[in-house]
Amino acid sequence: MKNIVVLTGAGISAESGIKTFRDADGLWEGHDVMEVASPQGFNDNPGLVLDFYNQRRRQLQKVEPNAAHFALKELSVKYDVVIVTQNVDDLHERAGSKQIIHLHGELLKSRSVLDKQTSYDCCEDIHLGDKAPDGGQLRPNIVWFGEDVPNLIKAAVRVEQADIIIIVGTSMQVYPAAGLTSYAKPGTNIYYIDPRPTLNYELYSSRNLKVIEKNATHGVPELVKSLLEEI
């Protein structure tokens, strides 16, 4: 069974109605991203940050996986599929995919400010004064700007093993995630699905790159249908 690694980003979730912050003015729901997505922002105003993610968590529960999420799940019928996502939502899980590596954390999990390793299921709001079992304030289990990306090595190993890489919903411009394709072995087929593709150096240098200029909900089902028919 061939290995497929799918690298997904904000674009695939945006087609389900989840708002992103890497647009026009760089603001996220009216906030500078460093105010709500950095350790310094949390230290300066933890109540603001907790409320911001509480709102994102509520929004997540009002949206559904789209055709791209469901199509990726179908690949597992004939391939060993690992999804490496920069998204913090659970739409891949809700669509039925099983092997998912979250690079930037998960919105539906929390952790203590004292412990980076242990996470807790979190479907409700987090408030100032909510404590983990170790006594530390609970915070979203999100990788903020300036923090380590603990699952990066795990993702790189899976990319090294891939026979096929599919990139969807991400510009592959933000590091360290953008460097993952450099771990691909020579000859790996790479499919890049984006209505307005922008390629970084690693992608430009790939001889086996195919760019599909479509949005996720159209491009992914078409590619999946083609890959399933090959076997």
Provide the succession of SSEs: EHEEHHHHEHEEEEHEEHEH
Give the termini distance in whole angstroms: 10 Å
Q: Give the total of domains.
A: 2
The name of the CATH superfamily of the largest domain reads TPP-binding domain
CATH topology of the largest domain: Rossmann fold
Average pLDDT level: 92
Tally of alpha and pi helices: 9
Ordered list of secondary-structure elements with their pairings:
Elements lengths: L2 E6 L1 H5 L12 E2 L2 E2 H4 L2 H6 L1 H15 L6 H8 L5 E6 L5 H5 L4 E3 L2 E8 L6 E3 L16 E5 L9 H10 L2 E5 L20 E5 L7 H4 L4 E4 L3 H15 L1
Parallel strand pairs: 1-4, 1-9, 4-5, 9-10, 10-11
Antiparallel strand pairs: 2-3, 6-7, 6-8
Compact summary:
It is built from nine helices and eleven strands.
What report would you give on this structure?
By secondary structure, this protein is of the alpha/beta class. The chain has two domains: 142 residues, Rossmann fold (3-Layer(aba) Sandwich); 69 residues, 2-Layer Sandwich (SIR2/SIRT2 'Small Domain'), CATH 3.30.1600.10. 31% of the residues lie in helices and 21% in strands. It is built from nine helices and eleven strands. Strands 5-4-1-9-10-11 form a six-stranded parallel β-sheet, sandwiched between helices. Helix 5 runs parallel beside helix 9. The termini are close together.
